[in-house]
UniProtKB/TrEMBL annotation:
UniProt organism field: Mugilogobius chulae (yellowstripe goby)
InterPro entries on file: Ig-like_dom, Ig-like_dom_sf, Ig-like_fold
Domain Ig-like: 19-120
Protein name (record): Ig-like domain-containing protein
Gene3D superfamilies linked to this entry: Immunoglobulins
Length: 129
């Protein structure tokens, strides 16, 4: 599997030049224990070029996907654009923050785009104080 890291600035002329894109602004959150944080990213892909697209937020170091439904609430919405590309929105809320939730987070999209491809967005930082 080939790993590509893309930090994409959102401009009208730049969108849709790649078969799989992850787009969002880098942010830093400082929240209190017991509160929650919402992480949002957008994934654009061409279904003619990419199959089986999986998009998810991940914690880095230690690396794991935010998939435990007791800890993370994820909402995914996908629409078809005029050019038949797909626009997937992934919102993950980290519930009941603890010190263990501090760290770096990143949205990742994986798909079979002529070859296995993983695209990652910018880093999000969460502090719990």
């Amino acid at each position: 599997m080939r790993l590509e890291v893309c930090e994409i600035l959102v401009t009208k002329n730049h969108l849709h030049k790649h078969p799989l894109e992850v787009i969002y602004k880098s942010q830093t959150f400082t929240s209190s224990p017991g509160s929650s944080v919402k992480l949002f990213c957008q994934v654009y892909y061409d279904p003619k070029q990419c199959d089986g697209v999986h998009a998810v937020w991940s914690h880095l170091e230690p690396a794991f996907e935010l998939t435990d439904p007791e800890k993370y609430l994820t909402i995914v919405n996908e629409t078809v654009l005029e050019d038949n590309r797909r626009h997937r929105q992934v919102l993950t809320e980290i519930l009941d923050l603890t010190l263990k939730d501090e760290g770096l987070y990143q949205c990742q999209a994986t798909g079979e785009c002529r070859r296995a491809q993983t695209v990652m967005g910018r880093l999000m930082i969460v502090f719990v104080k």
